[in-house]
Automatic annotation (TrEMBL):
Source organism of the structure: Juglans regia (English walnut)
UniProt keyword list: Iron, Metal-binding, Oxidoreductase
Protein name, per record: Fe2OG dioxygenase domain-containing protein
Similarity section: Belongs to the iron/ascorbate-dependent oxidoreductase family.
Cross-referenced InterPro entries: DIOX_N, IPNS-like_FE2OG_OXY, IPNS-like_sf, Iron_ascorbate_oxido_reductase, Oxoglu/Fe-dep_dioxygenase_dom
Record's keyword annotation contains Translocase: no
Domain Fe2OG dioxygenase: 201-301
Molecular function in Gene Ontology: metal ion binding; oxidoreductase activity
């Protein structure tokens, strides 16, 4: 029986001419998930922040709560975020339409080995520990979205392109609000972070669709990693599968709540705040019954932005500088060479 499952062909994740079966997706044993996709009990302590009262005098409290969430968890859920449900539903529909297309058509927009932008079914370049996911990765640039969509949908690209561009513009605005609030809560000038985000040359989106998996106890949608960027705004559907690593090496599931985003701190923001805000390792697990859709919007500063912790967040005796200042462009270049981020390792190169 086990043998039969392992020999099964995995149609939704096989590119043309590259048939894959379940056994090609079995991960190294240390990585096998210890809790299932719908085990959320331990994750209910993850803070939930609402923007409903953002305009009132509660602003101060809200900013502090956000900083606390990013300090203690590296993650929070955001509700009443102001991005319209219509924008979100529209883009989800377009993503599903894309993933539902025949493989030949999707591969017209395939990513190339040298540039990780476009569509791919799993990521065969990894060789082993293959993600159980279809993935679309694109830069925030409207031109790039249109170029990708035109390759895949031809003259019919407009609904996809428009939905995607609108969604990313909304998320960008939301990201800037969060950065202002974090700066405020940390006692920095409100534009401390946002002034570095004028050019959006490397901000990007990654959309995943994880098909049902016959062997979820040995496969992973996305392996454990921290996000190297600054801030991630994650949209997940109601299935569940995102798990985060608590400090005591315990994995906990993030319960999906309707019309919310999951926000998490990336490595770059951790360095920028001298470790005050934490970039926490997480992963996506899969399940036998349901496909799952998620999308991560990764906010990145201008390439020339210098990531250096401001003096207000350090203390020469008790909390000296932990990372040598670096530019986002330099870090990004190194990440592109590294290709695969495993666990939380990317920042080590700048440790003092
Ligand atoms: O699918 C998820 O819930 C996680 C996605 C993620 O962590 C990422 O794309 O970096
Ligand atoms: Fe991530």
């Amino acid at each position: 029986m086990a043998q039969e499952i392992e020999e099964q062909h995995v149609e939704p994740l096989s590119s043309i001419g590259q048939p894959l079966c379940v056994k090609n997706f079995i991960w190294s044993e240390e990585e096998w998930p210890t809790i299932t996709y719908e085990n959320f009990a331990d994750g209910d302590g993850i803070p939930t922040i609402s923007f409903r009262e953002i305009k009132s005098q509660n602003y101060e409290t809200l900013c502090k709560a956000m900083v606390d969430a990013c300090t203690n968890w590296g993650f929070f859920r955001l509700v009443d975020h102001g991005v319209s449900l219509e924008t979100i539903e529209k883009v989800k529909l377009r993503w599903n339409e894309l993933f539902d297309l025949p493989m030949e058509q999707k591969l017209k927009g395939a990513r190339s080995a040298c540039l990780p932008l476009g569509y791919c079914a799993t990521n065969p370049d990894y060789g082993k520990d293959l993600p159980w996911a279809e993935i679309l990765q694109l830069l925030q640039s409207p031109q790039q979205v249109v170029a990708f969509a035109s390759k895949v949908f031809g003259d019919e690209h407009q609904p996809f392109s428009d939905a995607m561009i609108e969604y990313m513009q909304e998320l960008d605005k939301l990201g800037m609000t969060i950065f202002e609030m974090l700066a405020h809560g940390l006692g920095l000038t409100d534009n401390f972070f946002t002034q570095n985000f004028e050019e959006k040359d490397s901000t990007m989106i990654r959309v995943h669709r994880y098909p049902p998996c016959p062997l979820p106890e040995k496969c992973l949608g996305l392996g454990s990693h921290s996000d190297p960027h600054t801030l991630t705004i994650l949209l997940q559907d109601d299935v569940g599968g995102l798990q985060i690593l608590k400090s005591d090496s315990q994995w906990i599931g993030v319960r999906p709540i309707p019309n919310s985003f999951v926000i998490n701190v990336g490595d770059t923001l951790e360095a920028w705040t001298n470790g005050r805000l934490k970039s926490v390792v997480h992963r996506a697990v899969v399940n036998k019954e349901k496909q799952r859709l998620s999308s991560a919007y990764f906010l990145c500063p201008t390439s020339s932005a210098i990531i250096a912790c401001p003096p207000q967040l350090m203390n020469s005796d008790t909390n000296p500088r932990k990372y040598s200042p670096f530019t986002w462009g330099d870090f990004r270049k190194q990440l592109l060479v590294q290709k695969r981020v495993l666990g939380k390792t990317a920042l080590k190169r700048y440790l003092i």
